[in-house]
């Protein structure tokens, strides 16, 4: 991978991180701007089912962003990254804070995120994002209880 391509990817990730910070204020637009315009863009987040396709991903991001207000990004801890000529993946702990739902207080929001970027004809774009809220170890019983409470069937 040439250094210019790495610089371009780094710039897109910076925009992505800024967008996540703004997302915590309830505005999904800046985070949506780094999404691939191809039909295989996908998202998995704690607020709904997996979605695929740009309109579906943007709608899911809008619904998720509506749960947050008065927030910001505190930092992004890179756990791992893989970069090839046309594909890159980052695994991060996103340290955020926001008023969540109807809560009056600002609360920490720690998310595990895996993001996949693809170099397309006009630059690097986010093609997949998977986020979950589990930032600490959990017991099997706690995971199963949460699944059952959400209406899912036990593994």
UniProtKB/TrEMBL annotation:
One protein family per Pfam: SnoaL_3
Top-level taxon: Bacteria
InterPro entries per UniProt: NTF2-like_dom_sf, SnoaL-like
Protein name in UniProt: DUF4440 domain-containing protein
Stored SUPFAM superfamilies: NTF2-like
Span of domain SnoaL-like: 25-130
Gene3D superfamilies recorded: 3.10.450.50
């Amino acid at each position: 991978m040439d250094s210019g391509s790495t610089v371009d990817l780094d710039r897109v990730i910076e925009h992505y991180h800024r967008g996540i910070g703004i997302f915590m204020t309830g505005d999904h637009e800046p985070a949506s701007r780094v999404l691939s315009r191809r039909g295989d863009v996908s998202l998995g987040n704690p607020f709904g089912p997996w979605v695929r396709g740009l309109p579906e991903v943007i709608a899911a991001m809008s619904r998720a962003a509506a749960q947050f207000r008065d927030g910001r990004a505190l930092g992004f801890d890179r756990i791992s990254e893989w970069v090839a000529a046309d594909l890159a993946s980052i695994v991060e702990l996103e340290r955020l804070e926001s008023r969540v739902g109807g809560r009056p207080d600002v609360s920490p929001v720690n998310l595990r995120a895996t993001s996949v970027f693809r170099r397309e004809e006009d630059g690097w774009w986010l093609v997949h994002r998977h986020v979950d809220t589990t930032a600490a170890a959990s017991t099997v019983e706690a995971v199963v209880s949460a699944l059952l409470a959400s209406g899912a069937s036990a593994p």
